DNA sequence: CAACAAACGGAATCGTGTTCCACTTTATAT
DNA sequence: ATATAAAGTGGAACACGATTCCGTTTGTTG
């Protein structure tokens, strides 16, 4: 894949990868996630060829940037169930998810663009976060705090979508909406939508 | 603006506008909302210049296509409050909103792309739908069926986002998630998300 | 049926993504 | 040290779609 800090990588290659990631982070948050590849390569003091060698797809670059944070989120789930009651653990963790998506400018749209170029991104994020969420949901359901008929995939999807702030950086709105979703998790004779 | 069927428009111009709209509808649902402009112009038997003359931005084309349906949605709200109890009216109307967004392939992503080229689209859809929703919410809140502290803008935003189906045409998931949102509207000592 | 304005078409321009390969740098063996 | 192979680099070249521009055509009006 990419960004491997482990095996057999020439010194200059590793240096360039670092420079590219740093440049990409800066350019993305400056110009948005669709910034020209050339711009990133230039900023890193590297040719486009080098950029494409290490990150064949734009989503690989984004993925490399957020991987650390997604992994942190996965671990956070374990800490939360141990240290809080199930309902609070779930709510808190979802709040962290919102922070991640809402904070990285353009990440939200990229996750749901439907564009083939980004396909591996949602797959990665979704795949990484679905297990912790499933665990948190099961835990809360087992404690009879919430309904047990909510699919983790559905919920994760909804949260990831809702988390994308409407106007630049309106994280508060995103949180209110996720709170509404969470509120909907509680027991109630649920009226399904008419079709 | 565009698509004016009213004043002082040469006969060939009106004919071409019709042809373009029909072609765009076909091409969009066939190739997605990012289909090349040339393709649409060709299909309409018209030069690209003509396409750009009538629809300077891609979003103008999309807007013209969905305008009819959005307007229908606005009217439907009035019928629903008259013919159903407030809770059902709200739920049913939201279901119609989901149908609109989920059905038009690519409309969802376009609404939330954050791309400046599409900015006028969300503005238009949001602006048109916010009033009916506000009315429906107020009506249900007045009947003490739901909480009265939910902002219509928040909810509309959330519904529009959630309505975008994850996988091609998975309207069912979208409806389940909107149902969860609706469920969250009911009275309850609501626990806000931690920040 | 002029004469004029409106509308048309498509070649030309521009910006960006992506590929390709001759050249350079690094690692390794002797 | 030095030679050699392998890995990595840079950027010109190409592909493709958006958008503009303007000479030509068509509809309208009196």
Describe the protein's architecture and organization.
The structure is a homodimer of 195-residue chains. Chain A starts with 10 loop residues before the first helix and ends in a 12-residue tail after the last helix. The longest helix of chain A is centred in the middle third of the chain and has 26 residues, at 58-83. Chain A has two domains: 11-54, Orthogonal Bundle (Arc Repressor Mutant, subunit A), CATH 1.10.10; 58-183, Tetracycline Repressor, domain 2. The first copy, chain A, has nine helices and no strands. Helices cover 68% and strands 0% of the residues of chain A. The first copy, chain A, is an all-alpha fold and 195 residues long. Residues 1-5 of chain A have low confidence and may be disordered. In chain A, α1 packs across α2, α5 packs antiparallel against α7 and α7 (120-142) packs across α8 (152-163). Chains A and B meet through α5, α6, α8 and α9 of A and α5, α6, α8 and α9 of B. The structure holds a DNA duplex (30 and 30 nucleotides).
Topology:
The structure is a homodimer of 195-residue chains.
Chain A lengths: L10 H21 L5 H7 L4 H7 L3 H26 L2 H18 L3 H6 L7 H23 L9 H12 L7 H13 L12
Chain B binds a DNA duplex (30 and 30 nucleotides) through helix 1, helix 2 and helix 3.
Key terms:
homodimer; mainly alpha; Arc Repressor Mutant, subunit A; Tetracycline Repressor, domain 2; disordered N terminus; DNA-binding
